[in-house]
Amino acid sequence: MLQPAELTLAEMGDLASIIPAADPEVRIRYHPIPDFDHRTDQSTGRSIIPVCKPTLEGNELKYVTQAIETNWISSAGSFIRDFEAKFAEACGTTYGIACANGTIAMHLALATLGLEPGDEVIMPTFTMIATANAITYCGAKPVLVDMEPNYWQMDIEQVAAKITPRTKAIIPVHIYGHPTDMDPLLELARQHGIMVIEDAAEAHGAEYKGRRCGSLGDASGFSFYGNKIITTGEGGMLTTNNREIAKLAWNLRDHAFSHERHFWHKYIGFNYRMTNLQAAVGLAQVEQMDKFIENRRHNAQEYTSRLASIPGITTPPQASWAKNVYWMYGLLVDEKKFGMNRDQLRKALADNGIETRTFFIPMHCQPVYWEQFKGQRYPVAERLCRDGFYLPSASSLTLSEIEYITSIIREVCPNLH
Ligand SMILES: Cc1ncc(COP(=O)(O)O)c(C=O)c1O
């Protein structure tokens, strides 16, 4: 039987201090499926403002109904092709390969490179675990770098130091919807003949120097999970301008069926297909993507204008070369200046019916990767983990909700009174 990797806080030494308080402390528990709307807090009866929720106000129902009425509900059908084409166009790429989720969009992209055991892939330690797992699925080794402190993205200067003859790819992850500084990364990769696979799971429509994330590297992976800027419930897409990668990804996605004869396989393929039903939702969502992004940018401004002057609060960054899409509106809390720590502030918000989520726990602190990265330290990622959390960030968040949430933060800030 598979055994879990156990790691106690005591074994983590001083790294234990960055690990967030256990969820019961903040009462509104982690809800894995953000498909709810007006949830209520059982103990107070008050409705909760969730961290995120999908907005399904376009052609979703119409297109899903069409798929059902025409009997095309499996993984062939016109919505798949239309969604692939429209999303690729929205990203500024030639090809889009729809698949079952964002994790396997990344795995599919890496699988096309033909990684072998012992190959190395450089990635930021501060990300969601799917980035590291996609590398591990290929039998390759994730190699970690820290974040730069200004924009909370992968530190490109550290990437150069981690390149070895075994490095086959670099994965920049556009964290929380802000792009990584891609030009120096692409130049470095070009000099060393290394592929760049963007993890754009959180960055639909984000722009780097006028070009959209997902079109900058050799290939990219997006997620359409229920909490993403556009969603298909579960779903993902690989985008690329590289015809060879696209052809191989389409084939690997579908058990690597050969074109010569049926049931004739030249690769170990996967069943990573998306259904026409999901793609029907996806097409309706991509039609609304620009509006969702506009709402998020507007909401971020509204949040920032109310929060920036509170002592000890750092609002989300925006580089001059970037257009953030604020997948999640994240804050850092400086305990001394604010007067309470991140977990205490989350508890105060939870007590007022506001759901929040802590920032990611870095890969070098994960039980399952502990032995692999033992002894490695990444101070910026550790600070983000210790002090960071995000506020409700749905595209449909209203001004009055933002006013309410920010008024609670002001009210509970000990150093404002
Ligand atoms: C950075 C990053 N990569 C990959 C994924 C995986 O996407 P999915 O949940 O669709 O598998 C996520 C999901 O939240 C993510 O945030």
The biggest beta sheet is recorded as: 7 strands, mixed
How much of the sequence lies in strands comes to 5-15%
For the termini, the CA-CA separation is 56 Å
Radius of gyration: 21 Å
CATH superfamily heading of the largest domain: Type I PLP-dependent aspartate aminotransferase-like (Major domain)
Low-confidence sequence ranges: 30-38
Kindly name the structural category.
alpha/beta
In order across it, which strands form the biggest sheet? 1-9-8-5-4-2-3
Helix proportion range: 25-40%
Name the ligand types: pyridoxal-5'-phosphate
- H-E string: HHEHEHEHEHEEEEEHHHEEEHHEHHEH
Number of separate strands:
14
- Our count of helices gives 14
Mean pLDDT: 94
Number of domains: 2
The gross shape turns out to be globular
For the record, the CATH class of the largest domain is Alpha Beta
The CATH topology of the largest domain is given as: Aspartate Aminotransferase, domain 2
The CATH architecture category of the largest domain equals: 3-Layer(aba) Sandwich
